[in-house]
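ok so for the tutorial part 2 we go from a plain amino acid sequence to predicted structure tokens. step 1 is just haveing the sequence, like this:
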Amino acid sequence: MSRIKGLSTALAVLFVLGTAVESQAQYGRTKAKPDASPGAVSSQVIGINSTISVSYHRPAVKEREVWGTDLAPFGDEKPWRAGANETTTVTFSDDVTVNGQDVPAGTYGFHVALSEDKWVFVLNKNYKTWGTYQYKIEDDVLRVEAKVADAPHQERLLFGFDNLTADGADLFLHWETKHA
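step 2 — the prediction. this is what the tokens look like for a chain of 180 residues:
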């Protein structure tokens, strides 16, 4: 086995063993091999100890058209799942205020209602789902219009946090040549 830069051989062995493929049930599907769109988590501590975490799967562009297609469809009634596979989730460890609206601590499905001229980030009560197949607009907790900008190419979907202050941050999504 080759060494992984910066890790001891023992830790590298544990890492390889810890990523062994196992069959696993997950929100109505059984996984027998790694996903083509790998799972990821992006987290940020805000204030003293409030944590915001986004759990998602990272699809690749693979030279495909993205926006307004089956990958990321336009539409308000059935928004994009903001990733691949299971519904992307956002978890708040504490009650938060998002664009002036109070949101209780908890986990929410995260979707994006896409159109050619605007994007709307959506938090929904129903998060234990596969994509948006069980999405219901009446379960929305919050809708926030996002500013979309052209950006350098990002092959795999990426969530992160910008404009970090002592009491806040902006959640961003960057994929293909769009940043919101």
